[in-house]
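Listing S7. Sequence submitted for prediction.
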Amino acid sequence: MLVVATAACAANAPAADTLPVVTGGRVVAEADGSYRFGWPAIYFEGWFEGTAVSVSIETQTELFRLLVDDAERARLGPGQLSAIVQGLAPGRHVVRLEKLTESQDGESRFRGFRIVGRGSALAPQEKRHAIEFIGDSHSVGYGDTATKRECTRPEVHDTTDTQQAFGPIVARRLGADYRVNAFSGFGIVRNYAGGAPGDSMVLRYARAIPGQGQAASDKGWKPEWIVINLGTNDFSTKLHAGEKWADNAALRADYRATYAAFVRSLMATQPQARFVLMGADAFYGDVQQVAIALATPERVRTLHTPALELTACDWHPSLKDQQVMAEAVLKVIRKR
């Protein structure tokens, strides 16, 4: 098996041998057959019969993993790139491209998988189950593959692998397609250290691409579960002069009210979904109060996040921690 990566030229229209794909995560479909995207953990899957396949992507700073038949074949990015995987055994194969890193600004573009040489496209295979994760850096997998706490900005970027964060782990265990709508440093009403006042994950959630204003269109997305892990950034740093809340009590009241309203809006747009609301020691009591206010115990469960070692970049969850959180979420979901 051989992988060849080269600089790619932009295509104006999808070729006849382009594979139909399953898209995981929010994407913006373009007239030329490409997809623009920016949220973490986006993935594309295609099925084909043949011995070689190519992928074409454009990415500003992001890193991607290319897999065929669940085996990693290459790491790609950044740039405008094309990669060919050849020398595969004759027969049926599945090719997958998955985003690893976080892009808070800008976007990437997927231009498609194409059969190389003789072969045929096969029908896409969506999974029977679907699950969504909404959160912050813990859900992003911020620096999760790092083996140290002190990291430079480039090191944080390059050691982030959202596909190894707890959300995708849970989804794989459940055999589900998934979305991770998460943004490092943001909370329900307050961001880390009071940054970007007036902005929040609740507001960013409505966007198709997190760093752009275009509204998301979630038509056809019907998750069975929505797991929310937000609050660390609201409460991990002290209030400072000039912030909108008079004191911590006012901040917590705003957090609870806004959180409850956010979940109610999700309940209205996703009436089939059930919810897991996660909370660490510093705000789990507030999460419990949100669940009580929602008054829908048949749809809402809470999870007190287990103790974590936090040995990845900037005291973030390690790969071991991500596994711990995944097991905790699975236990709540599977509880009868």
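Caption to Listing S7: primary sequence and predicted structure tokens for the chain studied. Confidence is low (pLDDT under 50) at residues 9-14. The longest strand covers residues 43-50.
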